[in-house]
Amino acid sequence: MSLLSAIYNSLPHWLRNRYVLSGLAFFLWILLFDSNSLLSQMRMRSQVKEMLIKEAFYQREIQQSNRELKELLTNNATLEKFAREHYLMKRPNEDVFIIVEEE
Question: What pTM was computed for the model?
Answer without folding.
Answer: 0.58
